Amino acid sequence: MILDRVAADGSLPGWSPQDGGLDRAYPLGGFFTHHLLRGDPREIVLAHSTVPVASGNHRAEGHRPVNRPPVVVHHFKWRTRVRENAEQRAAHSADGTWQDASPARLTEARRFLAHLDQHGGRINVQDERYGFRPVSTRAVPDWWAQEATQIVTTWRPPAYTAGPNEPASMISSPSPLGGSNLA
């Protein structure tokens, strides 16, 4: 499951090995993708070569997750150029240049851009909804098993209503037959 890693001040810095480790540049971890974007927080980290994995590595049709607690996937997405990438996603998804079976790409990009606009170009690391706190790649946080399992078990895709260039179907979906994600 995704653990979003961000800079201590919520800025979107670049990184290179000369800057020190990733833990130093992005010391906070939380559930930004899940709580703000309402994106699929699940991530496939290992699959047999015969198993087709959907875009974004969030699901594999007909397969269910088997690990408990969920594996930590440190998500170092929130860095230099992520704003430009989100702007491109929003523009191309809205104007039809990129055809999607889901409105998720456009909706998530717009939520992210609105958040940055509201917070001076930064991620609001003080907002308790996102659960940002110090983490490290060296150890699984004590709180991980309980919080991640709760999110993975209850996550369902947002309900979308179709609008211009926004088909109503979703790429990401809950477990088969709408049941629990518990194996």
What does this structure look like?
The chain is α+β, with helices and mostly antiparallel strands and 183 residues long. Helices cover 27% and strands 7% of the residues. It has helices spanning 22-25, 32-37, 82-94, 104-118, 144-154; strands at residues 2-6, 28-30, 73-75, 133-134. It has a 4-stranded mixed β-sheet with strand order 3-1-2-4. The two termini are 15 Å apart.
Keywords:
single chain; 183 residues; alpha+beta; 4-stranded mixed beta sheet; 7% strand; globular; disordered C terminus
- Give the CA-CA distance, first to last residue: 15 Å
H/E order of the elements?
EHEHEHHEH
Spatial order of strands in the largest sheet: 3-1-2-4
Percent of sequence in beta strands: 5-15%
Count of individual beta strands: 4
Total DSSP helices: 5
**Structural class of the helix and strand makeup?**
alpha+beta
List segments where confidence is low: pLDDT < 50 over at least 5 consecutive residues: 162-183
Mean pLDDT: 82
Task: Provide a short characterization of the protein structure.
27% of the residues lie in helices and 7% in strands. With 183 residues, the chain is of the alpha+beta class. The longest helix has 15 residues.
